[in-house]
Amino acid sequence: MSEVTITRAVRMPDLFRIERFLSNPKLGPQLLFFSGGSALNGVAQGLKRYTHNSVHLVTPFDSGGSSQGLRLAFDMPAIGDLRSRLMALADETVLGHPEVFRLFTHRFAKSARPDDLKAELDRMIAGTHQLVEAIEQPMRMLIQNQLGVFRTACPATFDLRGASIGNLILAGGYLGQNQQLEPIIFLVSKLVGVQGTVRAITDDNLHLGAELASGEVIIGQHLLTGKEHPALTSPIKEFFLNSGLKSKDPATALFPDRNRSLVQTADLICFAPGSFYTSLVANLLPKGVGKAVASRTVPKVYVPSLGEDPEARNLNLADRVHTLLTYLRLDAGADCPTHRLLNFVIVDSSVPDAETAEISACGITVLKLDLITIKTAPYYDAVPLCEALVSLA
C-alpha cells in the first residue's frame, strides 16, 4: 500500500459535507481526539449527529475525584474519564439500551449509611435491584458478574458513598480480566451502544508528575489541576509520567499498536479542549504518540480550552501551541516540521488578532469562528465546533 497527499479547498463551514454526514452518520469521518476529563463530553454528545466513527483516546492517569478510591483500593488505572466519555457517546435513541445507561450513570447516595449501600450493591449483584431488573438478559448477567467481581475484591474499608455504578462495573471487569482495561471497555461499549470508539491512551498504570520552575516536584494529577487543591504557584517546567504517588520515579509508557492503528486510519486528529497538562499533554507522553501523529498526513487541529486553566495560568495561546509541539517532538524528533504535527488552531471569533499572530507566523492556520453563545459559555457550542471539524476532515 502507498499513501498520497491530496489537498482541497474548504469552505467553513462546508454545508455539503455537513448535510451528507447528518443524513448518514454511520458513514461519518473518523475524527480522532486526544483528550481526557469532561471538557469534551458536550461536544462528543453533539458529534453523534455527524459521525459514529469518532475515536477518543483518554488519559487513565487521574488520581482524584471519582477514580481516587478505586485506584487506592486496587492499584489500577483511572477509569472515571473513560466511563464519562463512554456515556457521552452512548446511543440515546430507542435503538440503544437506556436501561443500561441509567444504571451506568447512577451514583450511590452520599449521605447513606455504609451498610445500606453494601446491601444495595448486593441487590444489584443478585439482580433484584430495580435498575438491574430492568435490563434484559444476557446483558443483565454480564453486569451482575462484573459487580460480583468488584464486591469480592472490595476492601471492607472501601467507601461506596457517591460511587458511580459505571465505575464499579468497569473496575470489576478490569479485575476479572487479568488487570486489562481493553476487554471491559469493549464490553461496555457494546452494552450502551457507544457510537464511536473509546480507548485508554495506554495500558500502563501510572501517575502524573511535574517539576515546577521553582524546583518543587508535584506528584499526582489531583495536586496539579487547581480544582481539589490550591492552584500551582509556579509554572510547570517538566511534565512526566511517574510510577507512583509517593516520590519522583519517572516511568515510560508505550502507545499500544491498536491505538497507533487508529491514528493511521484517522481522517482528522484533534488536540481537544481540557486541562492543558493533565488532560491534553498527558496523552502525548507515552512513547510512540508523537511519531504516530507525525506519520499521518491528515488535518491536525488544536482547540484550546475556554476560560482560566489553573494548570497553565502563565501560558498565553502561542505558549500553549509551542508547549504542545515541544511534547510531540519529544517522540517525533526535535527536527520534526511543524506542519507534520499541527496545521490548524480553532478559536472563537472574539480572540484578538494579537493573540494569534505569532501562531500564524509559524505557518499554522488560525480559524476564527463563532463558537460561543451566552447559553454555552464557558464551553464551546457543540454545533459550530462539530461542523468545523467535519468540514476539515
TrEMBL record:
Pfam families per record: CofD
UniProt GO molecular function: LPPG:FO 2-phospho-L-lactate transferase activity
Gene3D superfamilies in the cross-refs: CofD-like domains
Domain of life: Bacteria
Protein's name in the database: GAK system CofD-like protein
